[in-house]
Amino acid sequence: MAQALPEVGVEARLWRPWEHDFATADCLHLFGSEPEHLTVLQAARQRSIPVVLSPIAWFDLASCWREPWSLSQRGLACVKFLVRAAFPALASWRRRLYHSVDLLLPNSQAEADQLIRYFQVPPHRIRIVPNGAERRFSSAEAEPFAAKVGCRDFILYAGRIEPRKNQLTFLRAMEGIVVPIIVLGSVVPEHEAYFEACQRTAGRNVQFIAGLGHDDPLLASAYAACGCLVLTSWYETPGLVALEAAMSGTPLVLPRGGCAREYFGDLAAYVSPGDVDGIRRAVLDALSAGRSPQLASLVREHFTWRTAAWATREAYEYVV
User: Does 249 lie in the same domain as 114?
Assistant: First the structure.
């Protein structure tokens, strides 16, 4: 976002609170729902600087249970969610944060609806700013990544390796399939046992490749070389890798949880994360479907970072 905003006429820079002052800022944009933001917000208020927040949050029972935490932590999170759903006026740091900023910028209507339902945020204090992808993903060459892994038209699963991303169920669904599979992503600390379970389940046709940096040309090449992209996470909002892969029309298999359908409509397949047979059928159908010019056109027209930057600029102008 910081890179895209200057393209639409906004002078933006990343702010490090331990190094930079913000006395001359016209607006402060915070990302993520973090309790530490309340202190920053108070400091901005003292200087009459408006604040907008991209909450990057998702609230449902399944997401609480599938977070990469201990059993007791997940149980507590589920209880808190049920209490929040029953009593949305209940005080909390999160509710305070959402009600204190000048404007909330969720990345989907589904996320906005949750802010309204669970925290009673007035709808007029919400502006939707979609996630985006860079246009360079639409014209990448397949050969560099294909040469690295020794195959093309493979099934690509891209994402951090952890229980919420649900690679293990995906690999169980793929048992017996001879098509090459690439699991691209690094292991989240403290989930090495989960990674080992994935390795034990994987067939000989599966390669595990460590995560690539966002600016690494091999990442774009991976999308260009694959036959389909699969995400069977317990939820995605909607998943930047899905947008990046869709830039070139890559067939998508995505989870029903989250807001992916709001972005891709009928141009992607949606599965229940626990449905092994359903995942298998959807992946095989996606492989046979081939690339979709309609999907590529949709993403290039509506979900670039430039589009997101324009929506963000309008939000800044509103609060300033």
Answer: no
